[in-house]
Amino acid sequence: MLLKLYRRISPPNRQRIYIIPSRFGFMFAFFLLIMLLGAINYSNSMSHLLVFLLVSLGHTAMLHTHRNIAKIELKHCHAEPVFCGQTATFTVVINNPNQRDFHQIELAHQPNKIISWNPFKRLSGFVYKNHISLVPAQQSVSSTIEITTQQRGYQSLGRLRVSTLFPLGLFNSWTHFNTSARVLVYPQAEGILPLPVATNSGEKIMLSQQKGLDDFSGFQNYRKGDPIHSIAWKAVARDDVLRTKQFSGAHSGQRCLTWNDTAGVGNTEQRLSQLCQWLLISEQTKSSSQLELPNNTIAYGIGEQHLHNCLTALALYHDA
Amino acid sequence: MMHKAAPSSTSILWLMLGLTLAASPHFLYQPIWVSLVFLTAIAWRCMNIWFDWYLPSNKHYLVRIFQLVIAVAAILAITFNYGSTIGRDAGVAFLVMMLGLKVTEIRSQRDYYVTVFLGYFVVITNFFFTQSIPMVMMMFIVVIIMTACLITVNDPKHVIKKLQIVKLSGQMLVQSLPIMLILFVLFPRIAGPLWGLPQDSHSGSTGIDNKMTLGKISNLIQSDKVAFRVSFEGELPPPAQRYWRGPVLWLTDGTTWTEINRSLTSAVETNIEYSGAEYHYSLTLEPHNENWLFALDMPNKSPTTVKSHINADGVLQSNESVKQRVHYQLTSQPDYQFNQQHEPFVQRALELPDNHHNLSKQLAQQWRSETATDEAYIQRVLSHFNQSDFYYTLTPPLLTGDTIDGFLFNSRRGFCEHYAASFTVLMRAAGIPARVVTGYQGGEINPVNDTLVVRQRDAHAWTEVWLQDKGWVRIDPTAAVSSDRIEYGINEIMPLSMRSPLFVANSDALIELWQSINNNWDAVNNVWNLWVLAYGPERQRDFLTKLGMTNPNWQSIAIWLGSLLSLVFILLPLLLFYQRQQADPVVRLYQDFCSKLAKFQLIPATGEGPNDFANRAIKTLQHHKSDINTITQLYIDLHYGNKSHSITELQTAIKLFQPKKAQ
């Protein structure tokens, strides 16, 4: 029976939870010490009683703070690819398997893993990111963590810290999740070179009606990575939905975007950025494209998946 | 790292409520302007929240200058009012004032926390003034509110309802009670003070004085406060012998009576011979900030628990002034002979100021020459009080000029101190050594716990005359005028309106009820005083010995403290972390069903609905298909709204469901 009770309280493989007094907790202890000295000096029974009540309240607060995070689970942590310089948004789903609500959960992450002989040092370097007011009992709540991107390639979230000060703020209790979550960062889309001319094979692919340059052909819901200048701002004002203006132009057709075409732009990063910009415009104009990199070639294609494949190749490109 | 939002307006308003309640008892006795500054600051902050009034900040620097001026003025005013030494009263006034000013500039979480902690501090200062049960209850409510403040500031988006916050705060405090009790009983008490107490630490206590000016005791008679409580072992002395001896007054300047210089009296040996009945009793004296301990006339030795001695006047004198409630055991014998053969200060007991009480002196000399002996003269004076139109009244007319002459020849209305003083003058004028003794006479028996409660209104003054071969003899001239005062106590002769509040005064039944409530309340207070408030180093040792701890020293206390605390450290988390069963009986039944399936490694996955789970279960347990489907269907109907079935149907279905592996 006792064993059953123990299992109920402390299931195996649970997340390790840490707790230390917050700075307000230390302040509280300091105040209590002064009050205790006053109580002893005046030999005042009720002052003793109050000091002991508050000391005990500190202990109760510790248990409550621990309970407010016990058994917390990280269900899901994922981010959609972004272009370099944009903010990557990780969606984090926190689950509360308990019969009680969690309150005031704070999310922080440690972008750079700190390796040190000093265990306290390993607790530093966390950046506060978001705050969840309530995780109801036996429910999950999703929150976001936004990080800025500076470099193309994979950027990992690093160690995630889920912490709480609730209810009294005297103790800080936390747990770490070593997530493998990472975000793919595409190169920044920029460049000065004009888009290479499309070769209209005309045999297999008759993509769109040949209309005048920059003819407006309709709206499409905004997707991450769409150029800002193509957003239909007037439409946003109307109904708060981001849309991009779609144009059908003379460029429709087939296009081969090669590494060598960008030779005049500058270094590797700038060349990748140029290719990225071309790919986006090409996709926008609904023309089929092929990407040729020194060590990789992605065959002709069109659509979201094709674009993603091309951009991934750019993001992960290494000089041979 | 931390969530650093400014405290929300709701949390500020909670704090304002808590602080006002915490400081409110101080409003009664601190200077009115301190309370005004404090309340203005609170109101200002509330106005800031409700009507966007400016708060002192760098942006509104005029308001800030205004606040600084008030702060400086407040410090100056407190220094001016209380002098340069920071005592208890000045310290509290300073704390309340600064708290008020702090309230106007709470901006960050840090400010908020500091203010809450200072609020707890204000709660403690209240106990330096009174530790009565109502005060403790009120302060517990204040602590609940202050703790609720800490919760609100940690709930910036107001996810939790107000009532829930108060409930959580109360719950946490109730969960804190066990450790509080253990610490209260077992935490080693140190005899204070650790450093010098301020002069005014225990002021505000009332009691009789070591001087008597006609009209002074009448203030005490208005007071219902308890002076001391006595519980007798065995028999009680008859009411007429319940004289509780206090300071003895020898010297008079015509209006005021004072003690003889103490350095002279303590050096002289007294000679008291005791005889007759012994009364054993224990007495709990309320603090009165003076050096004497009251005892039934006459204690035969000084108590062991308080450092004291019986001085040359027969008064129990303590070495330190009584700043806290003291408790001591005594034995008294009302029959005694005091300095029977020789009184070294007999001359001092004959002194009267020149050119005072001339009419009285004449009368005394005339009567003394008419009577043969001192005893006969005393009887002559007492019968004068008894037979002429002297009245005992608690509201005597104001006397001007020579008070003794005025009383004896004109007003003839007064109470104990008038009679004692004028009788002593009449004795001394006739050459009989006499002195005034002050103290208490009488007391009420509380039938609830059989203690004798002596209140301030029982304050009394009587006379002792020194007669050769008899020594000092007590003569109470008040008894000659109003024997009821002595026989039945002051309660009987007080008008009803002074004994109980007006609203009950016109019905006997109500008065009786009122008195029985009073008696019970006093009995509760007595226990509270003896066992809770007086719990210091000695009481702790007594109590721990009673608990079975032989010779409690710090090691054994530490072991007890450690083991009891560990017990709570284990039990409290068990209580807190225990996952309560689902409240919904339908869900609980379904969980039973699931646990039956769990034996076959069938556990509902997160996000898996009952139907999906049932389908998965059927794959494993083909032969139970119908049972599983019925139960699942019943559960879905009951749990998700369509309550066409009764819960017992589900109950029996689950009870009968005994899954076995297919053969």
SSE blueprint:
The complex is a heterodimer of chains A (320) and B (663).
Chain A: H1 2-9, E1 18-21, H2 23-42, H3 45-67, E2 73-79, E3 82-83, E4 87-96, E5 102-110, E6 127-135, E7 139-148, E8 153-156, E9 159-164, E10 171-178, E11 182-186, E12 215-221, H4 233-239, E13 243-248, E14 254-258, H5 268-284, E15 288-293, E16 296-301, H6 304-315
Parallel strand pairs in A: 3-11, 14-15
Antiparallel strand pairs in A: 1-10, 2-4, 4-7, 5-6, 5-9, 8-11, 9-10, 12-13, 15-16
Helix pairs in contact in A: 2-3, 5-6
Chain B: H1 9-27, H2 32-51, H3 61-82, H4 88-103, H5 109-129, H6 133-153, H7 162-186, E1 211-213, H8 217-221, E2 226-233, E3 243-249, E4 251-252, E5 256-258, H9 262-265, E6 272-275, E7 279-285, E8 292-293, E9 295-296, E10 308-310, E11 316-318, E12 326-332, E13 335-338, H10 358-370, H11 374-387, E14 391-392, H12 403-411, E15 413-414, H13 416-429, E16 434-441, E17 444-446, E18 451-455, E19 459-467, E20 471-475, H14 477-481, H15 483-488, H16 490-493, H17 496-499, H18 508-533, H19 537-546, H20 554-577, H21 585-598, H22 610-620, H23 625-639, H24 647-656
Parallel strand pairs in B: 14-15
Antiparallel strand pairs in B: 1-5, 2-7, 2-18, 3-9, 3-16, 4-5, 6-13, 7-12, 8-11, 10-11, 16-19, 17-18, 19-20
Helix pairs in contact in B: 1-2, 1-5, 1-6, 2-4, 3-4, 4-5, 5-6, 6-7, 7-20, 10-13, 12-13, 21-23, 21-24, 22-23, 23-24
CATH homologous superfamily of the largest domain in chain A, by name? Immunoglobulins
Gyration radius of chain A (Cα, Å) is 28 Å
- Described by its quaternary structure, the protein is heterodimer
Binned, the helix content of chain B reads: 40-55%
Characterization of this structure:
Chain A has two domains: 15-186, Immunoglobulins (Immunoglobulin-like); 215-315, no CATH class. Chain A is built from six helices and 16 strands. Chain A has helices at 2-9, 23-42, 45-67, 233-239, 268-284, 304-315; strands at 18-21, 73-79, 82-83, 87-96, 102-110, 127-135, 139-148, 153-156, 159-164, 171-178, 182-186, 215-221, 243-248, 254-258, 288-293, 296-301. In chain A, the strands form five sheets. A five-stranded antiparallel β-sheet of chain A has the order 1-10-9-5-6. In chain A, helix 2 (23-42) runs antiparallel to helix 3 (45-67) and helix 5 runs antiparallel to helix 6. The longest helix of chain A has 23 residues, at 45-67. Chain A is elongated, with a radius of gyration of 28 Å. Chain B has 663 residues and is of the alpha+beta class. Helix content of chain B is 50%, strand content 13%. In chain B, strand 17 (444-446) and strand 18 form a beta hairpin. The longest helix of chain B is centred in the last third of the chain and has 26 residues, at 508-533. Chain B is elongated and about 130 Å long.
